[in-house]
Amino acid sequence: MTNINQLDFDSTVRARRMPCTSRFKPIEEIAMPDTTFVPPKIWTHDAPSGGKFASINAPTAGAREQKALPVGKHPLQLYSLATPNGVKATIMLEELLALGHTGAEYDAWLIKIGDGDQFSSGFVEINPNSKIPALTDHSGDKPVRVFESGSILVYLAEKFGAFLPTETLARTETLNWLFWQMGSAPFLGGGFGHFFAYAPEKYEYPINRYAMEVKRQLDVLDRQLAENRYITGDEYTIADMAIWPWYGVLARGELYEAGEFLSVQDYKHVQRWAAEVAERPAVIRGRKVNRTWGHESEQVPERHSASDLD
Questions:
Q1: Structural domain includes residue 6
Q2: CA torsion 206→207→210→211, rounded to 10°?
């Protein structure tokens, strides 16, 4: 929408093109409209901020509707969507099943974050932060709630004794990289992804700022993978499961349609690792769970048995 100042400016420019009279200043003396945002002393949520998720964004937490979550037949109940964070959990569960851990059978229920399902009372009881994925384990005397994707990976790894080394140095290195992902990905998703793909308008400063940071992060990974088959060495761990859905998928040009913009092909070691992980059967299966977009063969909105993926 053109604002009043712009209309004034445009009319002045048109007048400048007419025969010159003393009423008009030379064009070089006309000030451009000032579009700099000056933050108010106290911020208030007066209107939606715009962008893809404006309809569900709010500055308050808690439930917005009373609605219980469904519970299936398996001890593990997952409530999620196949975003990069959600895929971490389903890849882990499918990897555990591939190892023969039958106790990792699970029900996966679809949470449509665009519709605000994460603000139901049932979901908020599991995750007060209203973010997917969220998990409940009903195998004990009392249900255990687990929220935040990194916490879910650690919980399942310790429960089943898999994908997290027990030796101190190897365990610490795995957790180092798990938490690297948890701390770094917000710059990729909430920073670069938001301003590059979801913001209502394109702004040069934030796109440049976060593109630079994402490329720095890719370089961090490329240097690590130059000396290691997987993120922490020769063994595939929860660090790979956490990092791949974000940075591996980005490297394959499947995230934000930003592969060319970020020159992801330049990160050769990340490319090698991303391709190898993508071929794992459990990764292929896990990516389908709670997915509602893409080719029909890749969509399994809910998962209640292995046959749902076959």
A1: no
A2: -160
Residue spans of beta strands (DSSP E) within the chain = 76-80, 106-110, 134-137, 144-147
Cα atoms in the 13 Å half-sphere on the side-chain side of 167: 3
* Residue where a domain terminates, one of 123, 144, 163: 163
* Same-domain check for residues 212 and 261: yes
Q: How many CB atoms lie within 10 A of CB 135?
A: 25
Given a cut of 90, whether residue 10 has pLDDT beyond it is no
- On the CB side of 23, CA atoms within 13 Å amount to 8
Cα–Cα nearest to 67, from 19, 133, 112: 112
pLDDT for 183 beyond 90:
yes
More confident: 31 or 154: 154
Mean pLDDT score of the chain = 91
Q: For residue 121, is it within any domain?
A: yes
How far, in Å, are 6, 8, 37, 38, 196 from residue 32 at the CA level?
A: 9, 10, 15, 17, 26
Q: If pLDDT is split at 50, 70 and 90, which confidence band does 39 have?
A: very high
Shortest CA distance to 269 belongs to which of 213, 227, 212?
Answer: 227
Amino acid in position 62: G
Q: What per-residue confidence (pLDDT) applies to 72?
A: 98
The whole-angstrom separation of Cα 304 and Cα 109 is: 8
For the record, the structure tokens of 220 come out as: 């961090």
Residue pair 244/274 in contact (Cβ under 8 Å)? The answer is yes
The domain of 129 spans: 76-163
DSSP for residue 116:
T
